[in-house]
């Protein structure tokens, strides 16, 4: 029986959290339910936009207060390892740690987990598709810089397409056309390695036919974090 309790701060968006929960369950196969770690999920879909907070400072204080409140609630409920199920939310980790120093060492950064995995794979360059907030904040570029790995970001004209795809998942309006556009976006990058830097993108990736991206190495930060949890949970 696991002693660690996994806390998930989700709702950014909700369908991405649902997809992550399923992946988390599959990472801890068990014949009996009690052989899995306890998982707490705060699907806090009422928070302000993380992207607008990064780019415009819009409701920045309210957002950081709500992030801190949820992390604090998860800690009080017994969480020993916490995942923020949103790449852009990691831009606010310094604010969270200033308010909640007790959270340091308990939040498993999906950014760090992904950067460590990419470095271990020996990549020299990686492409990134993500929200504008994640791209403009440079969290992946900073995370990979110590390894000497270059990050290639989308062109400005690709932002609109990314936003459309992200919103389709958030609104549960994914169609065959949405998946086709996602495939086109991924294939528009010439490199061999790509980060799914928004938690909505793995939902779309799961609907892509097998072998569509043969020869391309796809990195999902949430799956990288799950691997960290799988190895470290006791």
Main attributes?
4-stranded parallel sheet, 3-stranded parallel sheet, Rossmann fold, 7 strands, 11 helices, alpha/beta, 48% helix
Describe the structure.
The protein has 234 residues and is α/β, with parallel strands linked by helices. It folds into two domains: 5-109 and 224-232, Rossmann fold, CATH 3.40.50.1860; 112-220, Rossmann fold. The chain contains eleven helices and seven strands. The protein has helices spanning 14-27, 50-56, 60-76, 93-99, 110-120, 132-137, 139-144, 156-170, 176-187, 201-205, 221-232; strands at residues 5-10, 38-43, 81-84, 125-130, 150-152, 193-197, 217-219. Helix 1 (14-27) links the parallel strand 1 (5-10) and strand 2. Helix 1 (14-27) packs parallel to helix 11 (221-232).
How are the secondary structure elements laid out?
Layout (H helix, E strand, L loop, with lengths): L4 E6 L3 H14 L10 E6 L6 H7 L3 H17 L4 E4 L8 H7 L10 H11 L4 E6 L1 H6 L1 H6 L5 E3 L3 H15 L5 H12 L5 E5 L3 H5 L11 E3 L1 H12 L2
Parallel strand pairs: 1-2, 1-3, 4-5, 4-6, 6-7
Helix pairs in contact: 1-11, 5-11, 8-9
Q: Please bin the fraction of helical residues.
A: 40-55%
CATH topology tier name of the largest domain? Rossmann fold
Distance between the termini: 8 Å
SS field, number of helical segments: 11
Strand order in the sheet with the most strands: 5-4-6-7
In N-to-C order, the SSE pattern is: EHEHHEHHEHHEHHEHEH
Main β sheet profile: 4 strands, parallel
**Uncertain spans:** none
Secondary-structure class: alpha/beta
Average pLDDT works out at 96
β-strand number: 7
| Bulk shape | globular
Q: What Rg is obtained from the alpha carbons, in whole angstroms?
A: 17 Å
Number of domains: 2
Name of the CATH architecture of the largest domain: 3-Layer(aba) Sandwich
Percentage of β-strand residues: 5-15%
CATH class of the largest domain: Alpha Beta
